[in-house]
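chain below, 411 aa
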Amino acid sequence: MSRRVVVTGMAGVTSLGENWTDIQAKMKAGNTGICYMDDWERYHDIGTRLAGPVTDFTIPKHYSRKSLRSMGRVSHLSVYATECALTQAGLLEDKDFLQSGKIGTAYGSSFGSTPPVKAFARLMETGEARGLTATSYIQMMSHTAAVNIGVFFGLTGRVIPTSSACTSGSMAVGYAYEAIKAGQQDVMVAGGAEELCPTMAAVFDTLYATSQRNDEPHLSPRPYDTARDGLVIGEGASTLILEEREHALARGAKIYAEILGFGTNSDGKHITQPSADTMKGALELAIKDSGLTPDDIALVSGHGTATSQGDVAECRATLSVFNRDVPFHTLKGYFGHSLGACGAIEAWLGIEAMQSGWVPVTANLTEVDPDCVGMDHIMGNGREMNFDIFMSNNFAFGGINTSLIIGKHSA
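prediction:
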């Protein structure tokens, strides 16, 4: 059995806003969501002070105190994004369907909420359980977003947690697509989320992979640029509602896009140093799954962390697959690297760009690194561009590679 999978709802939370109208306006104005983090000045052994925080998010008042007990910020963001996406899909009020077992959840983050970690660390250091509650572990566990979404909306279908660092969001969309395609579910909530934490910046700081351009937050990160000096951590969430096409048509749902292909593999070589060969393999798997050719794909949304090795390996892999100057950009110059959220956010905003016919530039890219040339890097101003199919790629620690191919819905 092989069924077509469409997108009937999509929403998110980013450092530039919660809807395409606001986000696009800020992108066109040349704004990014990166800022100097004053609170991080007390972390003396961390060099970076830059991040892409979500500063205007408020937990909805109708979320009950009981439901919030098991949630940290990463779950707040993911549940809210899911609520907005289910509303757009016209499914939020259909309680019978939500509890039918026909809708599942595939969702990821690189970690759960980090504040409870301090209480567990205190227990190990001092023997005191002060600060620990019955829900501390639930808030910090890696699949906290997925299970909180399921409990909040009463979903009884399968749960696919995708805690795979920077591919958590894209892997969730891919596995959700496969579950529907194979007839295992009719609808899937799919996405990723991440909350901002200085420990995540510290992870990359110890690898000398964070941007130190602390006095110029508006100029960093700089994906694929000769002057890039590392990544910037961000936060956010995005949810896509994936649905079997005939199921969506039968209930009269609006269809925003179609998932055409998915590919994933692993390097099997090094924990933190990416391999262009296996990256290439993931892209080829997605193309094969879609039944398309590289010439059918009009745009590539790249991972673009602004790290020296990652950018080069990605560009070499992309060029070796397309062998032409395919239009190419990344969104991480605007939001920073939102880790578990980035794949879902980039898929969502890729669909929005496809619908609007306008593609944002790679922020802060002014001079392409000679090792990153070959593609048609979108620079300068956003590009008016009518296109039907794009590819979205993400790569993670452990050599995990993902590629999604998404297109406009056709009869």
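The mean pLDDT is 97. The chain has one domain: 5-407.
thats it, cya
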